[in-house]
Amino acid sequence: MKRPSALLLVVAALLLVLVVAQPASAVVCKSTELQPCVPAIVGSPTPSPECCKKLKEQTPCFCTYLKDPRLRKYLGNPKAKQIAKVCGVAFPPIC
């Protein structure tokens, strides 16, 4: 009787490890995903719903983008922060 109980315990532990070890869906940092926000940055008064959606998806990438000199001029300007605020997205305070 001890053998089946021990085997069951080992199987349960393995299943638990497999479930816990499943990787979370990682965000792929692609600055081109923010393309829908360009009109709002360069002129349009309000961001589009697509822009807000992309900002929310790409939030984990903001520090990476801000460290890139080509992107910093867009994401580092006050207009970008205003757009993020309208979309309900928080910029990281420090990267």
From TrEMBL:
Stored InterPro entries: Bifun_inhib/LTP/seed_sf, Bifunc_inhib/LTP/seed_store, nsLTP2
Assigned keywords, A-Z: Lipid-binding, Signal, Transport
Gene3D superfamilies noted in UniProt: Plant lipid-transfer and hydrophobic proteins
UniProt-listed GO biological process terms: lipid transport
Signal peptide location: 1-26
Any GO MF annotation of the entry: lipid binding
Residues covered by the Bifunctional inhibitor/plant lipid transfer protein/seed storage helical domain: 29-95
Presence of the UniProt keyword Transport in the record: yes
UniProt xrefs under SUPFAM superfamilies: Bifunctional inhibitor/lipid-transfer protein/seed storage 2S albumin
DNA-binding listed as a keyword: no
Protein name: Bifunctional inhibitor/plant lipid transfer protein/seed storage helical domain-containing protein
Organism: Trapa natans (Water chestnut)
Lineage: Eukaryota, Viridiplantae, Streptophyta, Embryophyta, Tracheophyta
